[in-house]
């Protein structure tokens, strides 16, 4: 009856609204190469597939090619700017504290599975007092291919020593839903995150407006789980 055994959360656009800090760091990175800035909305649309893809998308939007070596240098520069200032403008999303606290009180184990590198992820989660609530943190640099591939979710299950069926993933974008579906894991999509797609069309098992709707919703997903 104790289902699910764990809930995993995506980070950017799901637990935190990090786009303003990513926007600032990306524009500073681009400025150091003599490139013009992007708006917050434009950068928000580039987030979700990890930092290398963020850099590639920025150059593509500038109409420029970037070779892998230059991209990797730009990734390093971006992270050097972003990591020390990753919580200046970033906030927790509505209901994030409540949802994590309630699930934890119910004895459900918690984790984060993000395409963001683990160092920045840990610093941000520590800043918001969430590290102690989490059993595992899997960053985009953990080894397996990033979401929408399922590898990071499989790694999370391995670290929790739980089968996919005992775990629910929560995310804001097609990267999360596609990764969960590829892993055979139930997935809840949350509205208002970083995706250009209508949340109803993502193909999630369930959809919520805010994270604090999740504790109640889990009961109905459990019934589906049989
Ligand atoms: O780093 C990114 O691009 C997005 O990270 P996320 O997987 O937490 O949304
Ligand atoms: Mg996200």
UniProtKB/TrEMBL annotation:
It catalyses: 2-phosphoglycolate + H2O = glycolate + phosphate. InterPro entries: HAD-like_hydrolase_sf, HAD-like_sf, HAD-SF_hydro_IA, HAD_sf, PGP-like_dom2, PGPase_prok. Its cofactor is Mg(2+). Pathway: Organic acid metabolism; glycolate biosynthesis; glycolate from 2-phosphoglycolate: step 1/1. Belongs to the HAD-like hydrolase superfamily. CbbY/CbbZ/Gph/YieH family. GO terms for biological process: carbohydrate metabolic process; DNA repair; glycolate biosynthetic process. One of its GO terms (molecular function) is metal ion binding. Keywords: Carbohydrate metabolism, Hydrolase, Magnesium, Metal-binding. This is Phosphoglycolate phosphatase. The active site is at residue 10. Mg(2+) binds at residues 10, 12, 172. Specifically catalyzes the dephosphorylation of 2-phosphoglycolate. Is involved in the dissimilation of the intracellular 2-phosphoglycolate formed during the DNA repair of 3'-phosphoglycolate ends, a major class of DNA lesions induced by oxidative stress. GO terms for cellular component: cytosol. The keyword Magnesium applies. Its EC number is 3.1.3.18. HAMAP family: GPH_hydrolase_bact.
